[in-house]
């Protein structure tokens, strides 16, 4: 009876097209893209969705190496000038030509106050169209890693944006609705046919795609359906109602592997999961401690860290698909060191002693904000952390909610304690520092995701300097010092680096990307 009801539920939830259409790839994951506006939200699944429609000057291949995108070549022509030679004969999906003017417009848009990508290109002073196929990007001082940052700045049609009054990015935290939220105009392999947020998104092959010869066999159509319930996602995959599941439930991996006609791809993801604490406020907004902030005391933060048994979370919650972390960045990122990526010892007795020394022998209460549809087993991680912190008297009020509510809450600095995951699309430590550790400063376009209130002048100085340093040995010393500061100051409590599993029909062939961003132009379906 349960199986029958589940089958009905799956069919109703997915409303998929006929299985006879072999060129349609149907896929699912637990949470939808937040918006189709390519500059509004710096969130992994959102960028992954938009990369099927929009493209950057430089792309990433399945190994995450930089490859030509809308730019065929790039090079520094002066200490503060990068030259990009654009790909000729590229058209947007409405048939209009792509030119340097679209690049200038898109970079100016990405620098707007409502853009969540300002920190990527905070060093940019000016973007010039030298001719229709040549762009110069002028920076404030040298920037040796600018090409890495360009991989995330997606290019829009200037004419289309002006026509539809979307020359500025959507203000996502204010729930602004614009034409670009549900519609798109790019040069990528797909175009948007239907967009019903949190229900269904249909993309079809872009008939004008410049890469059609290089990628001749990718699917004619993508049908995406967000399916929050893990059991429903697995049932849909096993029954053949979807062909690909991005975030296969970890508790079902063994079952999927044993099911005829299904297979998995696994890899270590470039993403770390951690807790952020409001260390900067005079008083926590969501706590029973009044007149002072317990998180401002490093002894309290260390006590919380040492009360979290990551070995237990790895085994019981993550089914061993996690690597316990001492840093909030993972292997594969330039500047990562195994020496610093070592957790403090799990020690409840030591944690209780620290709490007493800090003046909280009986603990206190605090609210933990947690997404329930963004990271692998995110709510279950928070549940485990809640139970572990209770051992040292910290009474946690766990508030788990959809990422569509979780991220705007953080972006309004409306959290005392929160769970967050951080990927590194540039594969360089500077990205972590400039977003998470630099003092939050909208004018300087840095610290955009630092909701802890953490501020260390030396960290700011190092982060600014490493962006401009061209001597690699000197730059690496700066990165090493910054990571040592990050570990010592402890504004975040690292938990683990994610290991990811993609599950799919054996009719699907696609290389797994360590950034957990499936690029379906590399896929085929029988």
What's the rounded overall pLDDT mean?
95
Radius of gyration: 23 Å
From the spread of the alpha carbons, the general shape counts as: globular
The main sheet comes to: 9 strands, mixed
Low-confidence stretches: 1-22
**What is the CATH architecture assignment of the largest domain?**
Roll
Report the sheet-strand fraction: 15-25%
Which class do the helix and strand fractions yield?
A: alpha+beta
Total domain units: 3
Look at the structure and give the CATH class of the largest domain.
Alpha Beta
CATH topology of the largest domain: Dipeptide-binding Protein, domain 3
Helix count equals 16
CATH superfamily of the largest domain: Dipeptide-binding Protein, Domain 3
Distance between the termini: 33 Å
Got a strand count?
Answer: 21
Fraction of residues in H or I helices: 25-40%
How do the strands and helices of this protein lay out in sequence?
Layout lengths: L1 H13 L9 E6 L14 H7 L4 E2 L1 E3 L5 E3 L2 E8 L2 E6 L13 H11 L13 E8 L2 E6 L6 H5 L3 E2 L2 H6 L15 H4 L7 E7 L3 E6 L15 E6 L3 H10 L4 E2 L7 H5 L4 E16 L20 H10 L2 H8 L4 E3 L23 H10 L6 E8 L6 H13 L3 E8 L1 H9 L5 E7 L5 H9 L19 H12 L3 H18 L2 E14 L2 E2 L14 E2 L1
Parallel strand pairs: 1-12, 1-13, 16-17
Antiparallel strand pairs: 2-9, 3-4, 5-6, 6-8, 7-8, 10-11, 11-12, 13-19, 14-18, 14-19, 15-19, 20-21
Helix pairs in contact: 1-7, 9-11, 14-15, 15-16
In short:
With 526 residues, this protein is an alpha+beta fold. The chain contains 16 helices and 21 strands.
